[in-house]
Amino acid sequence: MLRTTVDGDVRVLTLDRPARRNALDRAALRALSEAIADATEPVVYLRGAGEAFCAGADLDVVQALDAAGAADFAALGQRVANAFEGYDGAVVAGVDGPARGGGVELALACDLRVATPAATFAETGVKLGLFGAWGGTTRLPRIVGAGTAMDLALSGRTVDAETALRMGLVSRVTDTPRDVADELAAVDHRALRTLKRRLRDDSDQQTGDEREREAFAELVESG
């Protein structure tokens, strides 16, 4: 369901349920939570096995939920996404093939989304009478802008890799997304971690400026 390997300074997390297009049930979400909690490497690389990145939440699980169970399942997915976003290092999603629903939301929680030309993206929940509840309604507009987020979420339409790149949904399109993880692993790790913390800081401008100065001074002093 989830394979973890370490290759130098990169921890590779592989969603490994190809027969279900790597759909996520509770066990998969818990495995992701444990894997990111155990990670210490400067770079984590998330990928999917087989022909898909991730089909999102396992619909067999979702359809069996009552209201309380749905809220609990959403909270579990949110905790996983928040853990990826808050990881003290860079997290790269290598998207090769379809990313749907919760798969898009998991990718949105990563620092970089790197797509192959075969990648496609869709927030398909609206077509099923649902919507992405793993942080997608907050991260999607922050990353692509409110208008584009409305378009993607309300239509449920599918976009290809080049369209996703123009939207800002993905950072790069390449045949070898793993190379981007290796590229990040080759830079100064202290600077990498500090920069991520600074770029993720949503404080007001004055507070952000102060923290930026302090972080820069610490790096220079300790360098």
From TrEMBL:
Residues 199-216 have a biased composition (Basic and acidic residues). InterPro entries: ClpP/crotonase-like_dom_sf, Enoyl-CoA_hyd/isom_CS, Enoyl-CoA_hydra/iso. CDD domains: crotonase-like. Pfam families: ECH_1. Residues 199-223 are annotated as: Disordered. PANTHER family: ENOYL-COA HYDRATASE (PTHR43802), IP11341P-RELATED (PTHR43802:SF1). Belongs to the enoyl-CoA hydratase/isomerase family. This is Enoyl-CoA hydratase/isomerase family protein. It comes from Haloarcula saliterrae.
